[in-house]
Task: structure prediction
Amino acid sequence: MSIADHVEFLRGEGESLAAAAKEAGTDAPVPTCPGWRVRDLVRHTGAVHRWATAFVALGLTSPRRIEDAPELDGAELLAWFADGHAELTRTLASADPATDCWHFLRAPSPLAFWARRQAHETAVHRMDAEAARGLEPTPVATEFAVDGIDELLCGFLARRSSRVRSPEPRLLRVRATDVADAVWPLHLSQDPPVTVRGTDGAVATDPDCELSGTAAELYPALWNRAPIPSVTGDAATAALWRETARVG
Result:
């Protein structure tokens, strides 16, 4: 997906998050984020948007902490969120493709990283806002779902901080049933998982466990927002995934 594609998804997902938050009310609990209410979700996402904007807009080359959101609520909080979301989309859409700034996952460029990361950050939290209404979240588009699964498996869970580790080697396969080349064989060991997106032929031997479903079903499930659609194979490997595959 291109930077422009990610920016457009970011734009739509942010607007949908704000609409769902307004409909649910900022005092509504968020079942997918235990302990949070909608105001906490909106404050968090709005603060992350401003944090990301600063790296690109100011060309910051070192990490910095996410600043606390202001103690706003209700309509004022939603207006604050909308302002920050709009500024982020404007910044990403107009930035020089050669912009150099800090980023924390491998990407074609820093700008490509931030456009992708903020699109998926916002989409996942849009699902949280919709869950607060007591309704099933709207599925994401297939291409976007595959992209987000790839970011999670090849990016986040491959970091040194990853808790997805096994005392003995195991092979876990994630497979989107509706996209031919959306298969990720995850080699689990005492080190972070190693995987490369491929096809059904990418795994020569049967995996110990497979997590499967359509891309749109797997996307919220792998981001811990829904149950895994289908789990086959070794129950211990599936349990290891459920217990350790968390992104903070």
In short: Residues 3-24 form the longest helix (22 residues). The beta strands are 170-176, 183-188, 209-213, 230-233. The first strand starts at residue 170 and ends at 176.
